Amino acid sequence: MSSARFAVCVTTLALALPGHAQDYRDLHRAADAAIASDIVRDQQAERDANRQPYASPGYGPIRTAAAARSACAAKAREEVGRGSNIRGRITARSMSTGWEVEGEVGPFDDQRWVPFVCSVRNGSVSGILLDPDR
Q1: How far apart are CA 63 and CA 127, in angstroms?
Q2: CA 44, CA 103: separation in Å to the nearest integer?
Q3: 92 close to 63: Cβ distance less than 8 angstroms
Q4: What is the 3-state secondary structure (H, E, C) of the chain?
Q5: pLDDT tens digits along 34-63
Q6: Measured distance CA(80)–CA(63) in Å, rounded
């Protein structure tokens, strides 16, 4: 909990408690309860995020090699810009946590085709590398 939220919480609790219950121990217990509540909420959000499959925005969860090729092709075209296309065949190799996808996209700089390598990890596109020097 941020210090500003803590201060607001303690001030609110101090105003809400009756005059005879505003001693230090009651405020300390209330602040501890608020902090514990935030920790539990954060832990639950983390557990919920781990239970749901990872997804690439706009592509959905990537669970197959065909889906990996499609998502990486779309990402490569997005990186190169308007009017770009995929040339030839895109290959996807299975890895322990996903796929490694290779292909060519272009035209880059309105004239040449460049190879790309794309990683799909845990169901989403984790990175793409265009190699314009080749």
Answers
A1: 16
A2: 40
A3: no
A4: CCHHHHHHHHHHHHHHCCHHHCCHHHHHHHHHHHHHHHHHHHHHHHHHHHHCCCCECCCECCCCHHHHHHHHHHHHHHHHCCCCEEEEEEEEEEECCEEEEEEEEEEECCCEEEEEEEEEECCEEEEEEECCCC
A5: 888 888 887 876 776 565 544 445 555 678
A6: 25
**What are the backbone angles phi and psi of residue 96, rounded to the nearest 5°?**
-65, -30
- Tokens representing 2? 């941020």
Average pLDDT of every residue of the chain: 76
Amino acid of residue 23: D
Residue 100 token pair: 């490694």
Are 90 and 118 a contacting pair, CB within 8 Å?
no
**pTM (2 d.p.):** 0.54
